[in-house]
Amino acid sequence: MLVNARIAVVGRLPTSPAAGLASTGGAAGAMAQRRLLLDGVPVTAPVWSFEALAADEAVAGPAIIESATTTVLLRAGDTARMDARGWLDVAVG
Question: What does pTM read for this prediction?
Answer without folding.
Answer: 0.70
